[in-house]
Each structure stands twice: as C-alpha cells, then as structure tokens.
Amino acid sequence: MTFLPRAQRRLALLLPSAALLLSQPGVAQTAKPAAVPAPAATAAPDLPAPKYIQPAGTTPWIYRGSDVPQDKEWVFGEMPNGVRYAVRKNGVPPGQVSIRVRIDAGSLYEKPSERGYAHLLEHLVFRESKYLGFAQAIPTWQRLGATFGSDTNAQTSPTSTVFQLDLPNIDDAKLDESMKLLSGMIEGPTLSERDVTTERPIVLAEKRENSGAAQRSADKIRETLFNGQLLASRTPIGTDATIDAATSKSIKAFYNRWYRPENTVVVAVGDMDPKLLAAAIEKYFGEWKGKGRPTPAPSFGEPTAPAGADPAHPVGKTAVIVEPDLPRTLTYAWLRPWHKVNDTIAYNQGILRDQLALAIINRRLETHARAGGSYLYAQVGQDKVSRSADITSVSLAPLTGDWQKSLDDVRSVIADARDNPPSKAEMDREIAELQQVFQSAVAERSVQAGSKLADDIVNAVDIRESVASPETVLKVFDGMKDTITPKQILDSTRRLFSGTVMRAAYVTPKQGEATDEQLRDALLAKVKPDASSRLSVKPVSFAKLPAIGKPGTIVKDAPIGVLDIEQINFANGAKVLLWPNDAEPGRVSVKVRFGGGYRSFSPNDTAYIALGKMALVGSGEATLNQDDLDQISTGRKMGFNFDIDDGTFSFSAQTRQEDLADQLYLFAAKLALPQWDKAPVIRAKAAATLAYDSYSTSPAGVLSRDLDSLERNGDPRYAYPTKAQLAAATPEGFEKVWAPLLKQGPLEVLVFGDFKRDEAIEALKKTFGALPPRQPLPADVAARVPDFPDSGKTVVLHHRGDPNQAAAVIAWPTGGGVSGIRESRQLEILTQVFNNRLLDAMREKAGASYSPVVRSDWPTDINGGGNITALAQLQPKDVPIFFREADRIAQDLTKAPPTADELERVTEPLRQYVSRASTGNLFWLYQLEGSTVDPRRIAYLRTLLGDYSQTTPQIMEALAHKYFGGKQGWRLAIIPEGQTLASAPAPSGSDGDASTKQPAAKASAKPVGR
C-alpha cells in the first residue's frame, strides 16, 4: 500500500494558508508577475426565505418508515413540484459549498434501443443548456474556481445520474449564479442535433478507452451473475450501435421521461447558512415542471433459480471465460431478491452482525492464504447491487491451473463457518475493530468534508435508506455489542451463504482448463469443513516487545518559523518536525522519511524493488510476523503504508493520540529490528508474476508498466520486473538488498495533528531517538539522477488488446531539486494551460480522445529527473493527430503567450485549491517534508500561494521557450500487435517520424462519468 500514489503526489504538492501567505513576493524568473484578479463578485439578488423546509415535529422525507434518530444538522425540504432537498452547514474546507443533483434514472431505465442514453445525456447536459452556450460549461466553472474533473463532474450508474459541483470561495452572489447555471443544465439542456453529433465521438472514445480484456471479463461475469435481469445487459456505457443511432429526438424522449422534479434530489452542504442554501434551491428548482405524466420506474427483475433446482444447492448459470492475458480469478455468489426495507435500528443491527460474520470469514481466508494456501487471495462480501439483488459474493485467485483445489479450500473454510459458531476470541477481535472505526468517526466528526456528507445523502437515496450521525451509529453498536452471541453470528453466516440461486464465473488464461459443467459440478460437490484457520489465541502486546534501544537525547528544540511547528534533533541524527494542533480533532498524521529512495538501488535490483513495495512491511519486525502485526493493532487506529520516491523511502499512517506511541514504535522497529519472514516475499512473487501478462492487455496497462522507466531512458530501477527476474528473486536476495537500505541515509519524522506534545516527545525518545546512528548513503547516490531519453524519435510498443485501442505520449525534460521549486510552480500553470488546449483539440474538436492529460513532474528530492508529459488514449489512426496537436500547442506557447482568460481559468482554480488544501495537516506535512535536510523548503513555502496564482503572459512565454522552444519531444506510441504506425490510416499532414523499438518483454457494472 502507498499513502499517495507517485502519480498523485505532484498534485498533493500544489498547495498554504492564505493567512500566512497574504503578501507574496513576485516569482523571481523573468519578470515580476501581476496578480490575476479573482472573478468579480456581483450583488446577489435577494433570496426570499425558504417556504418548503419541513417543520420541526414532522418526519423528514429521508426518514419515513425509519426509527433511526434524525441527524439534526441536516435540514430537509420538499417542494410542491416533487423536488426534494437536503442542506447542511459545514466548514470543511472553509468557504466551499458542495452541490449534488441526483436524477433517479440510470442505465436500468433505458429501453433496449436506448442503451447508453443515460450516460450520453449526462454528457449533453454539460455540452449546452439554458444559461450556458455551446461548450461553455467547463470554462465557466473554471473561472468560478472549480477544477474540471474533480470539482465539476458527473457520473451515471445503473440506477441514477448524479451531477457534482464543489464550489470554492463561495459567497451569496456566487451561490446564486452557480445554482442558476446548474438548474439550467438540469431543467433546460439544449439537446440539439449539433450537440449529439459533437458529443457522440467523445462518449465512444470513453467507451473505447475502457474496453479490453478486463472489461470483457467483467461484462461476462455480470451477465452470468445477473442472468435474466436487466443488470446483465444494461451497462451505463451502452453499445456502439445505440449510441451511433441516438438523435436529438430520441435523447429528448429519454430526457422527458426521466428528468422530472419528482425524480430529483438536490443536496447542498457548505460554509453558509442552510436556509440560504435552501432558498437558492427553491428559487431555481421550485418552478420546474415535467412534461406529461410521470412514468413508473421499470422493474429490474429478480434472481430466479432454474426449474427443478435443489433448494439446498440451487446452482444456476455458470461460465468459464478465457482471456489469455488475464490472471485466474473465480467468482461465485448467492443471490436473493432485493426489496425495499424499513431502515430501522433492528435492521441495522442485523447488518452489523452480518459484517462481523463476514469479517471473521475473511480473516480466516487470509490466514489460510498466508500459510501457503492454494490461492493468492480470497474474500467474501455482501452488497445490495443496483436495487437488483441482495448478493453474497466470494472471489478468489487460484495460484495454478488446479482451480478445483483452490475453490475447495475456500469453500471448506466457509463450510466450517456455516457449521460451527465462531470462538469468543474471534468475535472480540472483530467487534474491537468495528468499535474503533465508529469511535474514530465520532472523534473526527467536526472534520468531515462537506463533499463526503453530500455524497452520503445521494448514496442513501440510491439504496432507499436513511442517514445516521456518527454518534447514532456508535450508540447503536455500543448498545448491541455485548449482547452479540456466537449463535447470532452463525445464523447470519447461514443466511448470507444461502439464497434463491447460486451462480459462478471463472476467468482463466488457458483454453480447455475448465468447462461450465465442471464449474457447476465443483459448486455442488461436498466439502469437508476446515477449521485450521480459526484464530489461535496468542497474546500479543506492545508491552512485551523489545525496546528499540536506550532513550535518545534531544540536542535541538526550536521553532522553524512557520505556525507553531518545531524541529527536534536527537543526538543519533534523527530529526523531527512536530506540530500539535486541534485543526482536525482525533487525527494524527505521521510520516517517516529515510534513505535514498530509487537512487539507492543498483540496476540489477528491479525485482526486489517491486517486491519491496508489496512485502517489506509484511516480512515482520521485532518479534512480530504479519499475523502478529494485524493482531497487535486490533481495535487501534494504526497503519503502515510504505512508498518509494525518487530520493527517499517513507512510512506513513493516520493514527490518534492514544495510539501514537505504539505507531511510532512500529515504524522505528522496522528500521531497528527488521524480520525477514519468507512467506510474504513468496506470496508477493506469485502476485507479481500472475499480474505480469495482464499489463499487455491494453494501452493503459503498457503505460502503467513501462512509462516510468522509458521516460527515464529505460532506467531499470523504475521498470516492472520481467517474469525471469521475478523467478530468479529469492527471499535471501530480498533481505540482502533491503537490510542495508533500512540503515542508510538521513532520517526525518513528521508528526502533525491532535496529540499531546510532551507525551509525543517521550515516545519519540524511546523510538526514533533510540535508534543507532544512521549509516551514510554511498558517495555516488546523489549523482544517480535518471536520464531523459533522446528526443526526436518515436518509440513504438505493442499491446495485445483490442485493435481499435492505442495510446500516445510526448514528453519534454525539465528539472528537479529544491532550488527550482518556484519555477516548477509557475511551470504547473503553463502545464494546465497546455492541458486545457489539448483537451479542446483532442476531445472537444476532434473527438479523438476522451481524457487527454498534460502533467508536470518536478522531483524535489533529486536535482533533475523532471518532465512535462502529455498523453492520451485513442485509436491507432489518431496517434499522428495527437503528436501533431501536442507539438503545435507546445510551439504555439513559445510564439504567443496565453491570454488573460486562459490564465484566469488556470490560476483561479489553483488559488482556490491552495485555500482549501491549506486547512488540513497533510497539506503542511507535504510542503515541509524534507526541510530538516534542506531548510530552503521553509523559505519557499512563504511564496507558494503567489507562485501558483500570480503570473504574467511574459513569464509563461519565457518558460515555454525554455522547455519547448525548438525542441522535439520524446514520443511513445502503443499500438495493437500486428500494426505499425505506418499501417494505421493517418490523416494528411500527420507526423510519420517513427522508428520502432520492441519492448524487452511483451507483456459489476461500474458508474461512468465525465
């Protein structure tokens, strides 16, 4: 696990408190930047007092039929036209309002000729509407400070379409304008023939980019499990034929049928008076009238058993799915009809008992796998899927072609749970885990994000249930946990693993390995219950673990000059940044940075780098193996995420004050007292080997596998290991590589959050202060900066997926290091301008790619290695278009600077992102990490807001000249096997500059949205 994926970490670095950064010096590059003004506020029209808030003493619409105590922070309303709303005041982050509009219509509401219409309509709502001209939605929301794709988005599921808007820097006028624009999108989309013609290729591009082996197998699994129901064939993305046949008239018919007030719920949560939010909703949604009479929702169908099936073993449809490049996976499920329930306390108590029953089984299945079982993983779960079925699913990954053995092993563990009640020790462990989750939710109640609260209401409406406050959930659980009996858990298990029908699907890479009938027979075969993986009671406690060493001595304790953060240095060289604060009650963020990261490895370590990401933590520490590590944290809020960055390794976790000392021990013990259990390494090898071929099934997979290395001139340290490299790796080799790395390089600990300073310092003395002195990094490590490949050529790789899928990448080298960090921030502005232009060229105008993206990576822990990368997934014939357009945009930026409007569309969202992100401890942690090694980071923090929100066209033009001017980008094309760039029908004037280079080795219905 990683705390933030490498690709996302750059975005996390975007962003300090406006209070600290009110006065910003100019960016010292070419000229002093002028501030980009925020959109001018206009006076908001007077909003009349809301008339339709449900009065006290009445049951709000979401709680009808429920005895769950109402969360009084929500204010509910219901208008005469049928629109329902929920509003709430919330200041996380400050100044933001999150709005959700949910339409009760998804892909299950479509006729056969309308497959994909709900999703296509979602796109068209953004295309043009009552108050927004053609293609004006994205730039308009950007000017208001909302980032497209994260702050402004939508998604279509089988049961609903949800429009999402997170508005920063809200005021009365901005709320009024935004609610007006949003209501115009919902109530008055244009839906012209031009709109449909423009949006169709974008939707087809999205469909194409998400297709391939993984999607084919998922579709076939869904068709099998939900055989006979609409869900089997109604994926939100639709079909090429129905999307191609869509017309303005047919789309309007779907819109008129389902986009109606009585099918609409509006949710608004944010840093404003709830009555003001309610008034804005009533003003703009209150007069909406549907056309014609309401249409009843269609029947989604119910799962049924085949005629004559044995009621005790009602095995229905089974399917064997052959996909040569996918790893083996087997899924089987018990299905029961979905029925709307009264969301009562008793009902929720039953749900909690079911969760406990499943958690006990999952713990046993994982224990069995760790002990060298026949499967890589196995998991059980229960869900009410798309109001179509109540389903208990079992998924597993056989390690070999002997899938019957893997299935028998999993079924044997479940059979024991069905036959015999759990032990008290097992129950106590899972009860403690749930207790911690609910207690933490109460402790962190004041820092619940408004966007999350809004989504909670939308999800509750979707499943036809209510919402409960964290206090209510904890109270319900506290009131029942001491009354839970082994028999109750046994009853839950028996109910969960029974039902109307059982169905199964097996995905295998090998033809002839299994048949549908063999899979059916395997499910009907009797199995012997296996109790060997039940929890063995072995007391494990931190009190009995060995000490890290003699408590350390503090040699420095001084403020760093930012807020109340202080730096503490220990005599052994460990350095700590400490910031106790109450900004996020109940949360403590801990990060440990050490060593040299990717620089520390040799070119021959490729396999051990990948295995380290998966197995280093699980290989144990002190006297604890992987099972002990799980057990010792039972009922605690603790974590152990591990990541490798360009210039450092890191451990990270979210914890709380009462668990902080033990969390620090876990991290320090991994450095001081590592164990080298072979089992996690062997399991990681199996996982990496099984996954290898799957990367070749699509352009996205090849990008994920190869791009990091290729952009660094083929550096093997960043490469995914080959099967031969994985086969040659051993647990002994793993220890040989990793053991010295845990002892090398500077050590920095960051502890930010709600904790007691003196107690934290005492814990740090006993842990990181008690470590032996660190060994220095090898002398040549600092010079191991990755190279950039030669530009001017096109590297061509191949995938084994669909023949209409390709990907293209073009990149330019930039830089790295702390000294250039201010330039890197301005470069982010230029990159976002590039991104908007590429989106317009490839998606909006050409319809060639659904989600082209331009990103900037500027490593701060090494002096180099950065790049600007533009990439897109598209059809093979459109690869030359992408290269031509990306090149054109790059060179245009060197000839003519961005317009004031272009800069405003970028800097305003960045400005707002800074303001929102700076309210959390993780923001400050990311900005200040590494500052004990290079204190310049502290000084550069003071200019961050200005660096991201202030610039000039001249600075942008100078940066474009520096990085793009007269330079050809390095190019990568990923096309289907059997094709060449020359064989793909390219448009006239396209780039034919291609030299092929073969790679070293070939390698349920989900929502879709914008």
Keywords:
alpha+beta, Cytochrome Bc1 Complex, Chain A, domain 1, seven-stranded mixed β-sheet, 26 strands, disordered N terminus
Describe this structure in words.
This protein is an alpha+beta fold. The chain folds into four domains: 6-32 and 788-1003, Metalloenzyme, LuxS/M16 peptidase-like (Cytochrome Bc1 Complex, Chain A, domain 1, 2-Layer Sandwich); 63-285, Metalloenzyme, LuxS/M16 peptidase-like (Cytochrome Bc1 Complex, Chain A, domain 1), CATH 3.30.830; 315-524, Metalloenzyme, LuxS/M16 peptidase-like (Cytochrome Bc1 Complex, Chain A, domain 1); 542-783, Metalloenzyme, LuxS/M16 peptidase-like (Cytochrome Bc1 Complex, Chain A, domain 1). It is 38% helix and 16% strand. The protein contains 31 helices and 26 strands. The strands form five sheets. It has a seven-stranded mixed β-sheet, sandwiched between helices. A hairpin with a 3-residue loop joins β10 (375-385) and β11 (389-398). α17 (606-615) packs across α20. The longest helix has 26 residues, at 345-370. The protein starts with 5 loop residues before the first helix and ends with a strand. Residues 1-41 and 984-1004 have low confidence and may be disordered.
